[in-house]
Amino acid sequence: MLSLKKIKELRDQFISPSLSVAYKDPLYIVKGEGQYLYNSNGKKYLDAINNISHVGHCHPEVTKSLHEQSKTLNTNTRYLHENIVIYAQELLRTLPSHLQTCFFTNSGSESNDLALRLARNYTNSKHTIVIEGAYHGHTAATMEASPYKYNGQGGNSAAKYIHQIPMPDAYRGRYRENSADITEYYIKHVESILDSLKKKDEQISVFISESILGCGGQIILPEGFLALANKTIKKAGGICIADEVQIGFGRVGSHFWGFESENTVPDIITMGKAMGNGHPLSAVVTTKEIAQKFNNGMEYFNSFGGNPVSCAVGRTVLEIIEKEKLQENAYLIGKYLIKGLNDIKKRHNLIGDVRGRGLFLGLELIRDHERMAPACSEADQIVNDMKERGILISTDGTDRNVIKIKPPMVFTKDNADQLIDTLDQLLIKKKYN
Ligand SMILES: Cc1ncc(COP(=O)(O)O)c(C=O)c1O
User: Which CATH architecture has domain 4-55+325-429?
Assistant: First the structure.
């Protein structure tokens, strides 16, 4: 086995320098099991951040179905195979009935890229509304639709057909929970973009949004915002994409899909991450009408998307979510975590806000409660200190002052206690500000 030092050296030599590693002291992880990861010295870590390993790291039923199918056949979708059609049927059963057509892809970025193509083709326009701080992927088109990137370090300003609205953040956003019509205020920004397009006689194409903003900082949208925004866009002839890449597959606990908890129904849904439990599997699901208009003579071919192995894995993940009641677990453990974190918030001024749904939670750290200055370096230090104590979490948000908690869905009450107690003890013992 290569040493940590050697791997670092080889990585510096051969791997793209723009790919960062987590933590000041990088981890050399060699094994995963359930909600635990193990480093090269056998140290065990509680993984409270890896939402891709949805049903648990290396779930034996997932690895078995991958192994069994790959022993028999793996090829592209130009041949008939039962896995792709049965999986599509099973997936569609979890979605509203107007969403009837699947496209299989290999990453969340690819799904959002294709979703933008579908919307642009349907509306014959490229005008896209995005939310400040949003991330939708690393392809050229999704980077353009990701303020998290184009407004971040090394980014360029937005393309002229990308229109950005302020992050609907009731805690530290432009309009806050103490203003009565907060949803209306944020919606006015959508309306004003639509008005200015109308004045120029131009057509809106698409509004793309997550139902809880992940990279934006685990932001729960103000009540009714997403439903009203989607309604306003549709009235203007636009298409609504729900990016479920981070939060789909039961993670929000109350529902299988995040958009359901916002009482809205999108025209296109994109999914990935959890879908293959680490295997590169993702999808776009849309209406027959949108898919039909896309079928204009140009073929949609994908070398890997929808192959028999990926679909076998996807089917097994769906089965496990149901069999092990993981959505219910996310609901119960999520509530327990929110309560426990709110309890310790009373003791620690640094914690400004505790929020989230199911097992998709955020702790926003601030330096003082009056100016609400973001506690960025403190958040970074806490994440590194928690790692030293065997718990893996990370930061996000435009100021990177939000601690993210989004563990595998098999997270238990004992795991929640360990996380809360370790954080509490750390904040008692160490002065961060
Ligand atoms: C909301 C959202 N959409 C899309 C993506 C891109 O997914 P992928 O990394 O699988 O390309 C991400 C990745 O973090 C994401 O958070």
Answer: Alpha-Beta Complex (3.90)
Burial of 97 (0-12, 13-18, 19+ CB in 10 A): exposed
Distance 212 CA to ligand 1 centre (A): 13
Q: For ligand 1, what atom is nearest to the CA of residue 272?
A: 10
Q: Is the pTM of this model over 0.90?
A: yes
Element counts in the chain: helices (H) and strands (E): 13, 17
Report the atom number in ligand 1 closest to the C-alpha of 210.
1
CATH of 60-323, one of 3.40.640.10, 2.40.30.40, 3.30.565.10, 3.40.1350.10: 3.40.640.10
Look up tokens 């709110």; give the residue.
Answer: 342
Report whether residue 272 contacts ligand 1, using a CB cutoff of 6 Å: yes
CA of 135 to the centre of ligand 1 (A): 7
Distance (Å, rounded) from C-alpha 334 to C-alpha 336?
Answer: 5
Phi, psi (deg, nearest 5) at residue 373: -65, 135
User: What is the residue-level pLDDT of the chain in tens, covering all 433 positions?
Assistant: 999 999 999 999 999 999 999 999 999 999 999 999 999 999 999 999 999 999 999 999 999 999 999 999 999 999 999 999 999 999 999 999 999 999 999 999 999 999 999 999 999 999 999 999 999 999 999 999 999 999 999 998 889 999 999 999 999 999 998 676 999 999 999 999 999 999 999 999 999 999 999 999 999 999 999 999 999 999 999 999 999 999 999 999 999 999 999 999 999 999 999 999 999 999 999 999 999 999 999 999 999 999 999 999 999 999 999 999 999 999 999 999 999 999 999 999 999 999 999 999 999 999 998 999 999 999 999 999 999 999 999 999 999 999 999 999 999 999 999 999 999 999 999 878 6
Cβ(278) – ligand 1 distance below 6 Å: no
Confirm if 185 and 366 have CB atoms less than 8 A apart: no
